Amino acid sequence: MVSERDHERFHLVNRTRPVWNIANHLYSKRRLIAVPLRQKERNRKRASFDFFNPRRLAMAVVTQLPILNSKSDAPSLFDGTTRLYVAVTCPFAQRPWMVRNYKGLDNSIELVAIDLQDKPKWYLEKVYPPGKVPSLEHNGKVKGESLDLMEYIDKNFEGPSLFPEGSGKEEVTKELLAFSDEVNKQVFSAFRNKDADAAYAAEHIGPVLDRLEAALGKFEIEGPFFLGQLSAVDLAYAPFFARFEMLAPELMSYDIFEGRPKLAKWFKEMNSVDAYTDTVTYDLNALAHVLKKNYGRL
């Protein structure tokens, strides 16, 4: 067993199935492998924290997807195949990925993982010049922005809809999806503040979480999700709450679910939704360790 102290010196992969490690694309069938980092990576000074930097999060990643980098050949672009481009540690990319999963589109939308720190030249020049993920190649065009892609996939592909209609749900959906940007802004800003404690969190994060707690009461007679039944709203928030839940206690001694029973129940339910959990291609404990280190909290 590798100790917590050794986490900064090793990439940990703990799975019985074949896995890819994005740091060096090591392929192994062993149950546990500990791969020493290159010396220059160990000694590299940590710059300001980039929350979605795949290379920074490499030791936490466990995925069977090959990660395409600057040395990788391009797929047969614009050949009629629909492709969703993602980065495996990016919560924004998880959003349309989850819609794809929920609607059963594995055979209709090919998943392509990109190394954002070593992007293929063809991705920038031929696919999506902004160089961000997620992006969707469909019908000879490429679209971006995670919330837009969630709706686009839902409306343009077969399968159960994640955008329910009736009972005012369309307006609530629009409102809560837009509000997700404010939630992320407030929480990540607090995480970056090294002086933030529980009192700071209660003042700056508490109000946005309380608003979500109240929102969960609107349709609770129909179920534990924001619109009663599972919808795009739940998928938009879930990958971020996985990070909030881990980091708020560690960085600010703050429990985001304390006093918010509906929010706690909601996230517990989300962790039983395959469309979401199938996109969690990283070990959460290892991820938490890396993120704490990058925030200078170890």
UniProtKB/TrEMBL annotation:
SUPFAM superfamilies: GST C-terminal domain-like, Thioredoxin-like. This is GST N-terminal domain-containing protein. Residues 80-161 form the GST N-terminal domain. One of its GO terms (molecular function) is glutathione transferase activity. It holds the Pfam family GST_C_2. PROSITE patterns: GST_NTER.
